[in-house]
Structure formats: C-alpha cells, structure tokens
C-alpha cells in the first residue's frame, strides 16, 4: 500500500463558475467538504482545496479554490484526487482497504497457493476479489466470510475456500 490513496476523479465542468462533477471513490460521504484539501496525481502534483460542494441530478458537484471559470474547470477533467493514507477513517474488525488486498497471495485452506488478488471490485452490491490464478486465469470471488474465511494483512495472504467452479473459469 502506498502513502496516498485515490478518493475521487474529476469529471466534466458544470456551468460557468468553475464547478466540476466529481466521482467520489471514498467510503466517507462527507469527504468532499469546504476546506478539504486533496493532492492531484499530476506531475507535478498540486493541491486543490474544496470551496463549495453541492448536488446536481444526484451527482456530486465541487468548486475548488482558484478555479473560477469554465475554462479552468474543463482543464481539470480526468484529474485524479488523492489524500494521505493516514487520513483514512479507522476500520472496523473484518474491514480492509482494497489497496491493502491487491497483490496478496490467495491460498486454499491447506495453505497451497492458488494465485494472487489482482484487484478488488467494489462497484456492485457485494465486493469481489478478482484473482489471477496460478494458471493465468481470472476468477471472481465474492468477498464473504464463507468463501474467504481468513485474511492476514501482515503476512499478505488470504484463504479462499474454493467451491466447485469458483477458481477454474475459462482462460482469457
């Protein structure tokens, strides 16, 4: 895990006053509040401070300090917003950050390596581990205790109880 995490991506401009749509990737609903400061993943990175937030058609609208017209707002499209990993909320027991899980070894209950977590899909109603198996297949594993009974962050492995068909989908 790096020392910064992605919290959002800037979308298209809205209106003439410098507002932009932001796709939040934060699990903290009020992450984007006036005064919040984010770093960009540009080279060189820059700081963007939230001046104002609102909603338009159920989408997050954000105005940043110093971005005052549509031209400046359009220049931000596609910019990734990050924050220090240390600023994240404290996790409850049995909660994990997706970036902590990526790269972890996947083992069966007997301890045999089955593959590696390539990414974590958080877009649906249930999180899923996307596992790259040792025979180079891609498998989707629902991230539920019945299928993933153990997670060891310190040693970087998870146990997956592979029910029939779970880890042997068609090759890519």
Can you put this structure into words, describing what you see?
With 172 residues, this protein is mostly beta strands. It folds into two domains: 4-86, RimM (Elongation Factor Tu (Ef-tu), domain 3, Beta Barrel); 98-159, SH3 type barrels (Roll). 6% of the residues lie in helices and 41% in strands. The protein contains two helices and twelve strands, in the order βββββαβαββββββ. It has helices at residues 70-75, 98-101, and strands spanning 4-14, 19-24, 37-40, 47-56, 59-64, 80-84, 105-107, 113-121, 128-133, 138-142, 150-152, 157-159. The strands form two sheets. The chain has a six-stranded antiparallel beta barrel with strand order 1-2-5-4-3-6. Strands 10-9-8-7-12-11 form a six-stranded mixed sheet. A hairpin with a 4-residue loop joins strand 9 (128-133) and strand 10. The protein is elongated, with a radius of gyration of 19 Å. It starts with a strand and ends in a 13-residue tail after the last strand.
Structure keywords:
6% helix; six-stranded antiparallel beta barrel; 172 residues; Elongation Factor Tu (Ef-tu), domain 3; SH3 type barrels; six-stranded mixed sheet; 12 strands; mainly beta
